[in-house]
Amino acid sequence: MKKVFFLILSYFIYGRGFAQDNLFHSQGDLFHASLGTQGIMTSKDHVPFWMRSNQFGSIPLPGTSASFIGTARIDYDSTNRQLVDWGASVEARADLGSSSRVTLIEGYGKLRVSIFELKAGRVKEIMGLVDTSLSSGAFAISGNALGIPKVQISIPEYWNLPFGRKLFAIKGNFALGWLGEQKIQYPDSIPSAKTYFHQSSFYARLGRPDWRLKLYAGFNHQVFWGSEKKVFGKNYPFSDFKTFEYVVLGRTWVGSKIGNHLGSVDLRADYDFENIRIGLYRQNFYDEGALAKLANIADGLNGLCIENKATSEDGTSEDGFHWHKVLFEFFYSKNQAGYPDSKRTKSGDENYYNNYQYTKGWSYKGLGLGNPFITTSTSTRAGLPNDSTDFFNNNRVMAFYGGMEGSIGDYYFTAKASYSFNYGTFGTSQWGHSTGYTFSTPHFGLFKEVKQFSAYLEVKRALKNGWEAGAVAALDAGDLLYNSSGLILKLKKSF
Predict the structure, then answer these.
(1) Is-contact 486 45, C-beta < 8 A?
(2) Where are the domains of the chain?
(3) Inter-residue contact 326 to 404 (CB < 8 Å)
(4) Contact 482, 45 (CB under 8 A)
(5) Contact yes or no for 286/362 (Cβ under 8 A)
(6) What pLDDT score was predicted for residue 4?
(7) φ/ψ of residue 10, rounded to 5
């Protein structure tokens, strides 16, 4: 009876039955592992921007160093999909140089039951409808920092709704994570407050699988919160469960939301030609309340992705140059509903990634969780104006970015380049930060426009018996970051 039930359930969800003897499977040939070593040379005190940005926290030490990276994972069986499946992954990095450290880059287990997935641990992830391999960085979670440990239930792949002949499909997630101890700066200074992380998302696709045109839309919502009774004292009225309800639903208490809320509302369109696929996407940012009134609608991440569908399975070509993917992005965050003629909101300028309560804003272990064009005061040149209450000293940015993946013969390459105009924050502008119709006088100097160029090139080649060799070069030139350069030589063995 159980097998009959599983077969009926799987037919309803997938439109087909599973083999009766394969509800579970052996993971034998789905196990993959690798060991790699890197020799690294960078400027004495600075790792170039694209060598450290969007690396999921896997960042080399500055100066001369060596690293050793080991990975092991068990994948789902993609060739014979099962009703119940499981997997796991671990990646660790050891660095030796001016100092030594060991970092767990990724470590999780996952269980899939039908269309649902339960995952627990530290995960490499990017949130939103951006290109996941080349993007300059999604607004909320870009892969710039280590993953926040969490437990998550999700529909990870688009699931065709059981009506409309596969015209509509959805996916999404709901997660609870742990940030550890965070420093609070309001209403009183608290050196350590136990802090949690919530994340949810919902995305929908319009278009049948065989249609050339597909349209996508959705949102993601992230929150830092925790220790409210410690932070607000006896006047805080809610239980832990009620607090979580307010966090998830974004309800307000005494005029503001509980915790630090941030996310994006995304749109995307993909069109399949015979040999190429073109994707257009837009992320609209929200940090406070401006997007609900379209007051900061000028801000956003805009992308054009062109993918070569004729790419060979391993992405290389023996017949000379072969391009795989080209991406262009325009990132704009200057508006923030912070100009005197902007549509007014109670919260004032968005002040992206900074937060009145959390001293280090939208960061984890010192690194910004979102798009790396918004920079911290610890990563930029000394002497740039900075509001003392802001961890991110530069969140008003206009940036042009391009990326490319391709091959020349047996050599696979990834190239990135960006040119940005940077304006600090509204706290270091001529207008100052705002709340409603009230503007505060800037007291920390005026942040004049500074320009920044950064570039990155990685080349690698597969050798015999699972060996791979590669090199990475990167440089920074401009007035936002210190001028720097770097070179990495890589050797990896896959099993």
Answers:
(1) no
(2) 2-494
(3) yes
(4) yes
(5) no
(6) 37
(7) -65, -35
Instruction: Encode pLDDT of 282-313 as tens digits.
Output: 999 999 889 999 999 999 999 999 999 886 44
| Token pair of 350 as six digits | 């968005």
| CATH number of this structure's domain 2-494 | 2.40.160.130
* pLDDT tens digits, 257-268: 999 999 999 999
Q: How many CA atoms lie within 13 A of 321 on its CB side?
A: 3
**Of 198, 155, 195, whose CA–CA distance to 176 is shortest?**
198
**CB 69: neighbour CB atoms within 10 A?**
19
Average pLDDT for residues 380-404, to the nearest whole number?
96
* CA–CA distance, 300 with 282 (Å, rounded to integer): 7
**Residue 15 in this model has a pLDDT that exceeds 90:** no
How much of the chain, in percent, has pLDDT values that exceed 70?
92
Long-range contacts of range 316-319, CB-CB < 8 Å, 24 or more positions apart?
Answer: 316/407, 316/409, 316/410, 316/411, 316/412, 316/462, 317/407, 317/409, 318/409, 318/410
d(CA 150, CA 124): 12
Catalogue the E-assigned strands of 185-291.
190-206, 213-225, 252-253, 256-257, 260-272, 276-286
pLDDT digits (tens, 9 = 90+) for 196-222: 999 999 999 999 999 999 999 999 999
DSSP notation for 29-82: GGEEEEEEEEEEEEBTTB--HHHHTTSTT--PPSSEEEEEEEEEEE---SSS--
Residue with tokens 């060996």: 467
